[in-house]
Request: fold
Amino acid sequence: MSDSPVSAPVGPTAVLDVWCELQCADCRSALADLHALRERYGDRLELRLRHFPLEKHKHAFAAAQAAEEAAEQGKGWAYVEAVLGRVEELDREGEPFLVEVARELGLSAEEFDTALIDGRHILIVDADQAEGKAIGVTGTPTYVIDGERLDGGKSQEGLRERIEQIADRLLAEQG
Reply:
């Protein structure tokens, strides 16, 4: 998922895949690092949300579908951040909470409700999860940059610095 405009950024870019689950408190903690990376790199580092709903969280799969609907409506990252900021409410309230967050962000709550019923985003979520499993993702958050997998599910300690080292090298190589 990306909210990026269709036009490509000028100059070198790097891609950071962020394997995330919206019912995950560790993913909420990772938001500070993602904000810092956005601040440092701007459009030169593309952050791509990749879905990896964990079975232990019963609303995670629906939340991933809802995030895709938010992206389709132009506010994917804003939605992700809003849901992650209120993980406990998602735990308690489930799908009605996902629709309420959409409403709060000015998105079409009716479309969210319909998307969760008709499953229009299931294939995207399934594909992300399958790819994650294929490359060894076992928990969230997990980051992949330049083919290197960094597991943040155990600890975020030092991960942003490692991502910055790889991003700096990639951007320097591109010129």
